[in-house]
Amino acid sequence: MTPAAQPPTLLIAGTAGAEPGRLARALCGGGWAGSIVVIGAPADIGRLAVRPNRALLALDMSMPADEEEDRLLEAFAAAGLPTALVACCVDAFPAWPRTLAASRRRLDPDRRLAVFATAAALADEPDVASGIPELAAWCAAGPDPTSVPTVPTQPPTVSGRPTGSATAIVRADRLAGLRAGIVAARAEAASSTRAALAEVHRHASTAGAADTFTEWLPAVLDGVEQRSRALFLQRLAQVRAAALCGLGTVGQLPSPDSTAGGDPPMPPPRRRAGPEDLMVLLVGASMGFGIGRMIVAPSLAWAGFGAAGTVLSIITGLLLALWVVSARREASVRAGVDRWAVESIAHRRAAVEHWIGVHAGASEAHVSREIWNRTRPSRVGEK
Predict the structure, then answer these.
(1) pLDDT of residue 85
(2) What angle do CA 210, 211, 215 make, to 5 degrees?
(3) Among residues 252, 249, 247, 254, which one has the least CA distance to residue 379?
(4) 217: left (phi over 0), alpha (psi -120 to 50) or beta
(5) Positive or negative torsion for Cα 154, 155, 158, 164
(6) Phi and psi angles of residue 117, each rounded to the nearest 5 degrees, phi first
(7) Is residue 54 helix, strand or coil?
(8) Which domains does the chain possess?
(9) What are the pLDDT digits (tens) for 229-278?
(10) Three-state secondary-structure class, residue 163
């Protein structure tokens, strides 16, 4: 009994920026009926359980091919696999024809290999030329010995510059753009925070007399802080997306620590009685009794109240003393609330700027590490 024929196997390899996995999914939905194996290192070819029939070298259109693609193509040539060069994500890079031409001059100077331009993101769109159906048809065609690559001749170095200089230049450009973008995002968030807190300070001068002021101010400051953080995180995500454009799928940044903002908010002031209040009480009582004896008592004596006038003068003096003490206490409380409001606004501004600075530094380190890991040559040789 004749065993059933094995389905054809397609091998796809490329750097992370070319998104070979995304190309494989688009081919599965674009007419390819066989199996697909995606690898990231030349050494993986020798570990495959089934020998592939054809191979695709996915090219990152954000930069010309370099040592990574050389090593992968050498592995295809050593295995004798018919190979095609596939420019990936051409919809995201308007200058892809120039990049593809530079890559082909390096990888296929004799122009023996098939070349395709694809846009996997547009594979499911109707009436849009994504290049996926044409690539799937080439993969399903019969073997073509003329499409087996040869080991490319390495281009000579220029002025002693190593062959990976293109990658180093692109990496340096991305890192410089990342730093400039983070600085701009930090300045924008800090400026927005200062403007919002200045507006709060202007309103606090008129709202300080309200009974609910100590509850209103923290709520408003919390809103300003949340908006400032959200604005900074949004701008940071835009900067990261631009810095990693063409280097693979951009995920989410690590969630920032919401408590990394310095000390906790300042509590509202609590008025406590002290020696000053006792002194004010004594001064108020002396002034009240003095006014009672000098003004109220003679008037009542002239009216014939006698002893009752003395009692009324004492009561009048006591009332005046209470009024003086309450007015002084209210002024002291208002001054304390105003001082607390100014200190709270300054404290919150410092906390927000501290959080922005800490998160900006952590994000720059994280994204810089991503750029380095996605552009370093060793990423296709490590296994």
Answers:
(1) 95
(2) 100
(3) 247
(4) alpha
(5) negative
(6) -115, 125
(7) strand
(8) 9-153 (3.40.50.300), 165-257+343-377 (no CATH)
(9) 888 888 888 888 877 776 655 555 655 555 544 555 666 656 565 666 66
(10) coil
Q: Give per-residue pLDDT as tens, 322-338.
A: 776 677 777 776 777 77
Burial 348-358 (b: 16+ CB within 10 A, else e): bbebbbebbee
Q: What is d(CA 60, CA 232) in angstroms, rounded to the nearest whole number? A: 30
Q: In whole angstroms, give the CA distance from residue 224 to residue 247.
A: 35
End-to-end CA distance of the chain: 41
The pLDDT of 151-169, averaged and rounded, is: 52
Give the torsion through C-alpha atoms of 35, 38, 44, 48, to 10 deg.
Answer: -10
Between CA 164 and CA 368 the distance in angstroms is 18
DSSP state of 259: T
Alpha helices by DSSP H, listed for the chain, are 20-28, 67-79, 96-107, 132-140, 165-207, 213-243, 275-291, 297-302, 307-375
pLDDT tens string 204-226:
766 655 566 777 777 888 888 88
Residue 163: what pLDDT?
Answer: 47
User: Is the Cβ–Cβ distance between 10 and 35 less than 8 Å?
Assistant: yes
| Residues 284/290/291/297 CA torsion (nearest 10 deg) | 140
Please choose, from the candidates 166, 135, 164, the residue with its C-alpha nearest in 3D space to the C-alpha of residue 71: 164
* The two structure tokens encoding residue 302: 């002239």
Between CA 242 and CA 253, with CA 248 as vertex, the angle to 5 degrees is 60
Distance between CA atoms of residues 118 and 87, nearest Å: 6
For residue 86, the surrounding DSSP H or E stretch is: strand 83-88
Provide the b/e sequence for 134-155 (b: ≥16 CB within 10 Å): bbbebbeeeeeeebbbeebeee
How many residues in the chain?
383
Q: Are strands 83-88 and 114-117 parallel, antiparallel or unpaired?
A: parallel
Instruction: Return the closest-CA partner of residue 76 out of 101, 108, 105.
Output: 108
Helix (H, G, I), strand (E, B) or coil at 125: coil
CA distances from 163 to 39, 103, 221 (A): 23, 13, 54
pLDDT-based confidence at 114, cuts 50/70/90?
very high
